[in-house]
Amino acid sequence: MSFTRIVTAASYLPALVVDNDQLSAIMDTSDEWIYTRTGIKRRHLATDQNTSDLALEVAKKLLANSQLDPADLDLIVVATMSPDAATPSTAAIIQGKLGAKNAAAFDISAACSGFVYALDLADKMLADGQKSLVLGAEVLSKLLDWGDRSTAVLFGDGAGGVLLSKDADQPHFLASQLKTYGDKADELSAGITSPRPFPGQQHDYSYFQMNGRAVYTFATHQVPQSIVETARKAGVELGAIDAFLLHQANARIIKQVAKRLDQPLDKFPVNITECGNTSAASEAILLDECLAKGMVKKGQTIMLAGFGGGLTTGSLLVKL
Ligand code: ACO
Fold this sequence. Notes:
By secondary structure, the chain is an alpha/beta fold. The protein has two domains: 3-168, Peroxisomal Thiolase, Chain A, domain 1 (3-Layer(aba) Sandwich); 173-319, Thiolase/Chalcone synthase (Peroxisomal Thiolase, Chain A, domain 1). 32% of the residues lie in helices and 25% in strands. The chain is built from ten helices and 13 strands. The strands form four sheets. The protein has a five-stranded mixed beta sheet, sandwiched between helices. A four-stranded mixed beta sheet has the order 8-13-12-11, with helices on both faces. A two-stranded antiparallel sheet has the order 2-3. Strand 12 (301-308) and strand 13 (312-319) form a beta hairpin. Helix 3 crosses helix 4 (90-98). The longest helix is centred in the last third of the chain and has 23 residues, at 212-234. The chain is globular, with a radius of gyration of 19 Å. The two termini are 19 Å apart. Acetyl coenzyme *A (ACO) binds next to helix 2, helix 6 and helix 7. The site of acetyl coenzyme *A has 23 residues, from helix 2, helix 6 and helix 7.
């Protein structure tokens, strides 16, 4: 019997960077408002690239890092709330462009918890010796109304991911917990399409809508609980966890979670200042950056914790 391990990580951010002052020029907001409430200074935005294009760049890097052939892949899972299309899935587009002919490919939708959901799923799906790409990719700017300052300033575009291989002789995925609070579904929504009664042509479509206060309260209560319960499942003390890689939604949420867990803030790396909220991509991008900068290292134990639309939470304790 073998166990899943993370072989390598990668990320990709589109070239255009838009800072808070540039947003202030087109809407009634300010760098001061955005930074003090969220920790965001700037975000990357896709111009002529769609979600699969960003994810494909990550997939290519992962294969190059691990010197694998696309045909070696058994599974491709993409977590996204901004797919190119309802069908084909973003993962199928990538599978085709890579020529990963032996890989089953599909998307999952769990918003900002999506990357953790996808990792947990892939771990459980892989048979001994199999390999998978697990990607989080978003072009959230497609879902933004640039006339709505309450959401437009929060989000960014990007992609990240990991290559998993089920070939380890000891467990690396130590424990997980996925939770969904469908009774709170209306607190955060985007891309809702209405039914189209025969023979109508009109289609209603909604941009991001969020009850920011409700999501804030949800995150600052449910995320610490999810982390504590996941660590307890694995029999690991919080103090023994080297880093907590939280979904990058708001720097204040991250500070509050650290406080509730009574853990030092320097164990909670952030990149929201540079990237904004990239939903399912955020923890994947952060993981790649932390590995590249030596902020987390092979052999360390890290907690990935996502939260967002659904509403959902997902925590995963991983030994790198
Ligand atoms: N610039 C200036 N003023 C603004 C802006 C803006 N961009 N946006 C809103 N305001 C105004 C409001 O109109 C309001 O004005 P009023 O008092 O005159 O009515 C005032 O600022 C306060 O607005 P609130 O919405 O109450 O601001 P709050 O302090 O709650 O901060 C925020 C808003 C940052 C969104 C916060 O609630 C938050 O971070 N919530 C969590 C969001 C989150 O984590 N989402 C993650 C999930 S995303 C996902 O899953 C895809």
